[in-house]
TrEMBL record:
HTH tetR-type domain location: 2-62
UniProt entry keywords in alphabetical sequence: DNA-binding, Transcription, Transcription regulation
Superkingdom classification of source: Bacteria
DNA-binding region: 25-44
Species of the source: Kitasatospora cineracea
Any matching Pfam family: TetR_N
GO terms, biological process: negative regulation of DNA-templated transcription
Keyword Plastid part of the UniProt annotation: no
PANTHER family given in the database record: HTH-TYPE TRANSCRIPTIONAL REGULATOR RUTR, TRANSCRIPTIONAL REGULATORY PROTEIN
GO terms for MF: DNA-binding transcription factor activity; transcription cis-regulatory region binding
Protein name listed in UniProt: TetR family transcriptional regulator
Amino acid sequence: MKLTKERIVDAGMAVFAEVGYQNLSMRQVADRLGAHAGSLYYHVRGKDELLALMADRICHHAYEEGTAALDALDALPAAARWPERIEAQAAALRLSLKQHPGGAQLFAESPGVLSTGALSLMERLLRTLLDGGVPAERCGIAADVLLSHVTGFVLQEQNQPAAPPTVTAERYADLCARFPLLMGPLMERLDQDEKFVRSVRLLCAGFTTPPDSGTGARAKTGRPHR
């Protein structure tokens, strides 16, 4: 079968899922394709470009999934509020990262090169935030925070053990005594989907909340800065 950039990316994704970011090599990708490693360089300049192409594929998939989710919102009788549109985009990115083994790590650690997929995700987030009334000076940081949150959330999901660790009754009682807030009712036991939705909504609520003018308050009361 003819060697193409698309086939190389396919093979790269498969190898990456098995060996991870650091251990991926062009030779392994070539072996997966039954080709000589040197022949890959006619299509992809090296590992960094391959990783960037792989990340770009995930981003484009997330963008397409986000578009479908936004179209569904637009079909509702009333126009969706901007936080719901942000939530739809965040959920689409999370799903895309989870569908690719190691996708979150690839998205987070891929070389910092221009990717039309990543740029498209960021551009749409910025437009949604700006149209929703988030102050322009906060939109960039808000979009960065959202993308970082989704990536970190999925990294935790993909690294969770298959089963929670076994804890004896004595050990559990000791933990409750030492960490009453963490082990108590403040930390709701939510499934991952519900936790994700609530976390994105909490971030959206914060994007439009005026920052605390703590410095000014201290100046007015005469309290010293620390």
